[in-house]
Specification:
By secondary structure, the protein is an alpha/beta fold. Helix 9 packs parallel to helix 10 and helix 10 crosses helix 11. The protein is globular.
Amino acid sequence: MAATVTFPPLARARGPGYWLRLPNLWASRRSFLRADRSIAWRDRYNLELAPADDARTEPFSRLLGRPVRGGFRFLILADTGEGDRSQYGLVPLIRALAPDFLLISGDVAYPAGRLEDFRHGFFAPYRGLGLPVWAVPGNHEYYSGRHGREFFEVFCTQRHAEEWRRAGLRPVPQPGMNWELREPGAAPLVVLGVDTGMRGRLDRGWRRPADERQHAWLDARLAEADRKGLAAIVMFHAPGLLRGRHDRRTRLGTLHRLIAAHPSVRLVTCGHEHNFQRYPAAVFRRYLEQVHDVPPDAPARPEYVVCGGGGAYLNATTLGRTRYRPQTVYPSARKWRSYARMGERIVASLGLSKEVIGALVGRIDSAARADADVAQYLSMLLVEVTAARVRVTPVFLDDVGALYSDLPDGREVRVDDPTVPVSAAAVARCLQESFTL
């Protein structure tokens, strides 16, 4: 036996079969009767609401609430906002790792970035963490009826500051949908959050403008990091490289060429794909050259990590033959198959299989149909910063129950109870091999 892990009551339409419930399915439809206005929205808020591009930089000390000296640590995670057991299951590990703040690479509020989705998929699960949180929007935030305005109001203004405080989180508004954290002389790191919009299409297309303003901003900020000799992490939601292949639906060539042009870029991390994939610098570099026409003498050779295991259903990790082989995939293909079989049994028992509706709106895939809503195979990145170095550690959680292995058999524990200790040895087993930027 072992401790029995329980969860707080979930809001209606959260939990097993989440993506097969008609309201969630309709709200999150990708392209059926939905136009991508994310670049037009960014252009408008840049002019009317957001600060000038040169005012999008904030020091790390603003998030820390203290001077940088002595170092700090933070977590990067993505695809968090289902508001169900799989999201809540990561909270004890977040608390045990004691980060100074969280950064989320999009899809904070499923299914459609509405205020109710933020309440159930952000404020409620992270209640009591006492941390500031910054994020970049994912595609689901742009599915809202206001085209992402809710994300802007939650993360970039004080409009919902009281809701942050009621949730036991520290409101520190970020300076826009794209932003920079840096503190030269105190920390050797820069973190840049890029907004890839609803569909990961920042380049010009048919009847679609390019996001020239954001590209120019990123180029300027990375050039400054080059001059200062800083290491840069670039984080955004939509990955161009996933499952060992190029996603042809994305239009992110300019973004990738900018990344390759700046030697300061040491790590690129994305979300959107609900698992963990780490590609060594040599493999990512080959992808940049072959897909995005990056010249062989371009200076940057960053690590590349897809880190979307923050609480949503899992995507398959059975890769098959791939052109760009990842160094690490989590969960393993064997663990994924076990998860999928269990999820299919659970969903079938609920009578929620809506295959015809799923095909109609182009949203449901086999992974969503297998959503078991269990706190297993979750992942994130731990970043530790000192004056001398930046160390990145992948964090894998096989099963939330293992965190309570020190407790007596049969004891009942709720994952949102901060007074119950987790096993230090179990936390240590979640930490994978680190790498230095």
